[in-house]
Design goal:
mainly alpha, 452 residues, 15 helices
Amino acid sequence: MTGGRDFTQGSISRSILRMALPMTAAQLINILYNIVDRMYLGRLPGHLALTGLGLCLPIISILMGFANLCSTGGASLCSICRGRGEEAEAEQIMGNSFALLLLFGAGLSILCLVFQRPLLYLFGASDQTYPYARDYLTIYLLGTLFVMIGLGMNPFINAQGFSGMGMLTVVLGAVVNIVLDPVFIFLLDLGVKGAALATILSQACSAVWVLLFLTGKRAALRLRLCAFRLQAARVRRILSLGLSGFCMSLTNSLVQILCNASLQRYGGDLYVGVMTVVNSIREVISMPVSGVTHGCQPVLGYNYGARQYGRVRQGIRFTAAVTVGYSLCAWLAAVLLPEPLIRIFNDEPALIAEGVRAFRIYFAAFFCMSFQFIGQSTFVGLGKSRQAVFFSLLRKAFIVAPLTLLLPRLGFGVDGVYLAEPVSNVVGGSACALAMYVTVYRPLGRLEREDG
């Protein structure tokens, strides 16, 4: 090894926690980029500013999906290559991923700016909420490259074992965002424009930090200009493995679009605002699970590349125990304490009344989401791209999306939109975890006995 952490040594659970705790903190802080915007905008009179921001979230999810397309696959491949001692190939993968991020970022910015009006109306905007959504999205899109670099390249810091440095990347951006938001929104009276401006400036700070580290002396794998030249076979490997993260973001965006459109049709702007709050809370309470499962990926991938199959199985068991335990606690909090959570974002009586009912339906089976995270992270960490992609699509595209359209028409109304989520958590999450157990966990046991 030329640098970075060797995950084949020491306790596997300690290695995962050493990666997961800073990554969990980083994930939670990263959510502040948009959550803080929603908290401040929710304090403006009425709920139109908050609803307008909610209409932009599907497009933001798509942009993040393209960042995940390059980073999830690239970082997982880097971990596997490091486990095999293939440092030069790991650097080539990182360089190709960076080049892809730049290409996707520039292309998507132009495309979304050109078509933002029809897109926002397609996603559920009304004449009252469109101006707010347009003002936020226009500024956000101008900073897409910062988002791509900061979000897309930070996993390559974590893949080398520098999870603390990866956490500082998002801490820096979040602190800048928290400081600038009230200044731009209230002091300078820029409203939603100020929220968007604060967000892209904070992302710019994160992007600069990431680039300084990856081109500096401390990095085990350095970002070099000679690695930017795209190589077809390498790009295919990056994109095929990253496709699962991309599909999750894309299908999340699809579901948000369908939810907003259905809620606008069967309820109105108030219900779109309620869903914005619901999604905000879901992002916050699911982040620790996401942080743990993302933290286990470099450890699992490294040990898998080093043929330490027993340690991989230990890592899967430990990750499953932690995520299921936490998910049960988060589920109880969401179901029993909805009103205090809603008041973080808005205290309008009508929104709170509808929000409490929505929470208890939407989060009815939240604990089952942990099964999806466990299976998904294992597939990605070990380079099982086809399984990862399939289960990314199953829960959202094949279960949630059709139910979001079907249940309201069967007489459930807006409750049908909320009900689609718990159904998908039970069916999709259970299927993903079971498939991981049968196709990965048990075969790893046989490989462990053969090598032993």
